[in-house]
Specification:
The protein is of the alpha+beta class. It is built from six helices and ten strands. The chain has a four-stranded antiparallel β-sheet. The protein has a four-stranded antiparallel β-sheet with strand order 7-10-9-8. Strands 3-4 form a two-stranded antiparallel ribbon. A hairpin with a 5-residue loop joins strand 8 and strand 9 (about 200-205).
Length: about 220
Amino acid sequence: MLASTLQLGKRDLAVDVVVASVSELMDETAPCLSEVERERIATIRHEGRRAAVGASLALARLVAARRLGVAPLSVPLTRRCSRCGTTDHGRPIVEGADFSISISRSIGWAAVALARGPVGIDIEPLSRTVAGSDLRPVCTPAEQDWLRSRAHPAPLRLWVLKEAIGKALGEGILGAQRWALPLEAAGELEGRLSGTSPRGEAWSATLMPASAAPIVAAVATLDVS
């Protein structure tokens, strides 16, 4: 399990990040899930995805529980869609908490980020190969041009950054083709990146520092007062 605190944005907002493999969370997953969550997860047919969903929810409860000083099952973790207001999908929320939470999962991995402001995180295994053409629907023309001359893992890095920023904006990957990463200043997407959404929201993002874990992950926040 990897835990770190990153500083992002103009105000150096502290973002607490925890990354864990699904195997590390195997024994803790079931005790951290509600009956409703276990029943919903049981309907997922793909074994790897089913395990990753359970592990990511368990990790979210474990991390939030430490912050709140309560038992994992006492964490009021839910979701709320910013568009329709329903709670069966949308941004994860810890009801009544003074922090925001973001959750990500991929086959074999789970990640959680906490911050006192909108936050987004995304994680993928380094072994996943993504072609630049696969990302065309979520990229600007400039990003598509940038990808044409890049090999793995550059497309994967761009993907997790776009996903993390989209989560911080409350949109996910939907509409990501309407805003661009600052490629000229970013080089190979290293260091802190910043930009503005079509709604005028200033965001900051970074790839997580390289580690022994074979993953590519990114974290993003909004610069809010």
